[in-house]
Amino acid sequence: MKSKLLQMVLLLFTSFAFSQNIDVTGTVLDDSGLSLPGVNVKVKNSSQSTTTDFDGSFKLTGLSKGATIVISYIGFRTQEVEVTAAKITVKMSEDAKSLDEVVVIGYGSQKKREVTGSVAVLDSKTLDILKPARIEQALQGTIAGVNVTTQSGSPGAPLDIRIRGIATNGQNSPTVIIDGYVGDLGILNPNDIETITVLKDAQAAIYGTIAANGIILVTTKMGKKNSKTRVSFNSYTGFQETTRKLPTLNATEYALLLNESYANGGRALPYPNVSGLGKGTNWQDEVFNKGVPIINNDLTISGGSEKMTYSVSGSHLDQEGIIGGDKSGFLRNTARVGLGVDLSEKIKLKTNVIYTYFTRKTLNENGLGSVLFNALNVPATLNPYGADGNLTLVPSTTGLGTEIINPLAQIENSYNDYNYKKVNGNFGLDYKIFKGFTLASAIGFNTSNSESRTFAKQISYGGKVFDVQRSSVTQKAVNDNNYSFDLYGTYETKFGEDHKLEGTIGTTIFKEFGNSLSATGFDVPNNSWEYADISLTKGISETLTNTSYNYDQRRLSYFGRLQYDYKGKYLFSAMIRRDSSTRFGPGNKVGYFPSVTGGWVISDEGFFGDSKFLNFLKLRASYGTLGNDQIPNYGYIGLLSGEATYIFDGTLVNGTATGQVPNPNLKWEDAEKFDVGLDIKLLNNKIFLVADYFIDTRKDLLIPNIPVSGITGTGAPGASSPTLNAGTVRNSGFEFAIDYKEKLSDSFSMSLGYNVTFLKNEVLEVNNGTGFLEGGSFGVGQPAAARMQVGQPIGYFYGYKADGIFQNQAEIDAHPSQLALGANAAPGDIRYADVNGDGVIDTKDKTNIGDAIPEATMGFNLQMNYKNLDFAVFTFASVGNDMVRNYERTLSDANRLNYVLDRWTGEGTSNSTPRVTTGATSNNVLSTYFVEDASYVRIQNVQIGYTLNPNVSQKAGITKLRLYAGVNNLYTFTKYKGFDPGASAGPQNQDGISRSPIGSGIDYGFYPVPRTYLLGLNINF
Predict the structure, then answer these.
(1) Which residues contact 858 (CB under 8 A, 6 or more apart)?
(2) In this protein, which residues make up the domain named TonB-dependent receptor plug (predicted)?
């Protein structure tokens, strides 16, 4: 009986004990009340764990009351919650420390606190706010040391990224690595990007020959494990307009100016009666369109199970140009599939495939005779259309030259299109062989095809250089491919209590190959774009009408990296890469690129104490050698790429000849990079400071066209002098960035960011026989406008120093003669400085009159959240960059900007703007008169948004609904007279892709970046 009673008592207690175990469901929200998917939820001191689904919900079974749940998520403070009920809600707060965030560093990752190199990260939140049409735009002003300049504001135009300055006269763009393979940043959909990591110093040495210009690592978005299917739709629409129109003279002002000019030149007045002319035609109003549409839509579906994650997305961008209507535009479609699968406990598969298709139409821009050049120079006295309704012809008088034409006719007769298709991606496997050791392999690939077609309509503009005597169509097809195979192993271990070691060793195989064919056909049927196809042309040409090329470039690399830390406060990393490349001759195919980095977390030292003001302090330094092999293929051998014309049997025959003189000693450029920096957290981790001092010395610059003996035939058509390693450039500077985040109340939070970069660029060596390289052009028939020369910034402007205006003949008589510049000076002409003091003004007095490289760049960013409202503003500033005003044709009858109204008209009237005359002067030579300070401050983005209360939106099955309005490129504060002080495009290099800095910053009338007004919608289901 007693035993039965005891059993009943035990059963009762057991039942009571089990009754204390409960199933807990919960929801995790961020600090604004939105659900957080993918949050780690773990029972403390237990193996039971889960993650929140798309709705931020989770469920744990069989928990006892009083158990503790640990909730953690990257970017938020880890919280512990005691179980007191079956249903709980947890609101996470952002983690200002963020030192445990993982940063991608190439072939691996590190916690942020352990990083010893100069590394910066841009996340998807910033991309969501900026809404860039091209991702490069989001780097401007958000990351210290990174400067982004536009080649043009036309839709789809490429942008130039420069990390810590310009170091070479060739390719200066960083290498972009997308999920482990070499890719193209400009064609990606911004909403597919999770993070962008910029490696600015010797940390990038693990990429060897492609790392000298810096490395940009892109991580695309993936789904999260154990989460429901998430559907995200983002859409915006807007309209564009020019940010600026230049103040040209109206018809009456132009006629009066021309009369004065002709009178000063002793010629008859062209406009004896100016009454009734009025304002005439504003040609900029004619070419610039208003309310130009831009539309973007993208859809992402993502989610995951216990062993699989997926993300599928598609996007559509359609942007028209603010000039040219349907003759200028960009359309881009992308599709992407990302998949991660745990094939077993040890093997993981990850793949990411992206398809991109875009079309682009362009106009003649940024040069003599471009659309904007003509819009600025055609006189306001001319009408766009004649009495017969046809577009008018600009007279072919001496005063208007042969290149100024009606810009509306130029637009109407522009016919071209460009279609581009690309598939790129990677397939990777990770295999955990044993504890601490993982073997990773990946295949990356890019395959693209492009087709272009340009039609030259038979037309006459009245004796201009644009006249086309015979219609033609040129078609080109390009096929580019590359693939890479990476295989590397990573071993991570700890020994003792305080030592942590991680080693990585691997190999990379890279191959790039492709071909192109271009041909021209003459006599297009009906002289029409609709019939512009080579298959329909029957015209015969006596000159060669087709070209082609093939290329094949390969690289084999081995690399290793060792990372060690002691107690998490003494950090060390060493890496080396061996590259062999077919771009260089037999004796220089192999190069070695070593680097070391180190860090000291001073705040972890015992003597540092527990400072409430200074929470974290890390000193880091790096030094290493990196390479740059971005030159055309086959420079070390002779190719039959030149032209040869000879007489054979009494007939003129076209043949081929040797092109560029070969140089078997070609090798890559070497970049020695040194960096020392500080990472600091202040005031309870609310303020984050980063400061860096750096020196980047680029040696063995690959300089083309080094003079050699004419016996080699370098003067023949298509031939050229060789490319040699013959230069050195150094960039040094200081970077500083500060970020402040504060949650002032449950309803209001804000963050501030500021960064600044000071940069000095200096050429140390140019060994080409002359001691300098020339490039860029100014006016017509003038010497090169820019130089690369020892002791000067690369690409500095080379001209005369203006020293005011001659007010009278006595000043002229007392000044050295300026006759060598083309004409005797007269009162009202520009006075030039005798720089060398030899008593005469001639070419020996040319000097540095400015350069396009800014002395400092900076960004200031503000974000605020109040309840369901959010507001953001991003700005950028460039200080100390100069530009050459070259968009005004110096012909006597061309129109002018209205600053000429303050010209010299008599003694004492002006000491800055010269007189006007049709007579000969030296006022139009390149001088400081044409060089302007192009410093500017730009409000890049302003956006305000409203997120519907989740309690309301979720009733409709919508987890997030946000509406926003914004303006991109709102306003630019500058004294520069041109369209865009931030634009810069130098002459194209021999590779046909990159642009030389020698000649950048010369403004022919840059197509301005448009101001864009946006209305947008974000919906998550």
Answers:
(1) 141, 754, 755, 756, 757, 876, 877, 879
(2) 111-215
- Residue 614 tokens read as 């200074």
Amino acid at 990: Q
For tokens 């279609």, the residue is: 419
**Region 895-921 average pLDDT:** 96
Beta strand 146-150 with 830-832 is unpaired
- 753: number of CA atoms within 13 Å, CB side? 20
Burial status of residue 957 (CB atoms within 10 A of its CB: 0-12, 13-18, 19 or more): exposed
Closest to 191 in 3D by CA, of 162, 221, 213, 169: 221
Q: Helix (H, G, I), strand (E, B), or coil: what is residue 827?
A: coil
Residue among 208, 217, 212 at smallest CA distance from 555:
208
Question: What's the rounded Cα separation, in Å, for the pair 651 and 647?
Answer: 5
Per-residue pLDDT for 209 more than 50? yes
Contact call for residues 983 and 1003 (beta carbons, < 8 A): yes
Sign of CA dihedral 33, 34, 40, 42: positive
Nearest to 274 by CA among 375, 380, 378: 380
> How much of the chain, in percent, has pLDDT values that exceed 70?
95
d(Cα 403, Cα 547) in Å, to the nearest integer? 28
Q: Give the separation between CA 277 and CA 273, rounded to whole angstroms.
A: 9
Q: How far is CA 418 from CA 113, 322, 474, 477, in A?
A: 47, 19, 12, 10
Phi/psi-derived region of residue 914, left when phi > 0, alpha when psi is between -120 and 50, beta in every other case? beta
- Average pLDDT in the 144-157 region? 90
Contact 494, 500 (CB under 8 A): yes
Continuous H helices in 282-397? 283-287, 371-377
Same fold, 17-91 and 102-223: no
Closest residue by Cα to residue 668 from 553, 835, 828, 747: 553
Q: Report the DSSP pairing between strands 215-220 and 175-178.
A: parallel
Q: Which fold has domain 17-91?
A: Immunoglobulin-like (2.60.40)
Q: Which of 1007, 893, 1001, 917 is nearest to 377 (CA)?
A: 893
Query: Residues with Cβ < 8 Å from 209, sequence gap 6 or more?
Result: 555, 557, 579, 581, 591, 593, 627, 628, 629, 668
Q: How far apart are CA 113 and CA 100, in angstroms?
A: 7
- Mean pLDDT, range 599-618, rounded to an integer: 87
The separation between CA 174 and the C-alpha centre of its own chain, rounded to angstroms, equals: 9
Q: How far apart are CA 421 and CA 412, in angstroms?
A: 28
Q: What DSSP string describes 904-964?
A: --STTS-SSS----SS--STTSSBTTSEEE--EEEEEEEEEEEE--HHHHGGGT-SEEEEE
Q: What is the distance between the alpha carbons of residues 958 and 948, in angstroms, rounded to a whole number?
A: 10
Exposed, middle or buried by CB within 10 Å (0-12, 13-18, 19+), for 692?
buried
Q: Report, as an integer, the average pLDDT of 626-652.
A: 78
Q: Which two tokens stand for residue 933?
A: 């300070």
Give the class (CATH, top level) of 102-223.
Answer: mainly beta
Distance CA 211, CA 205 (A): 6
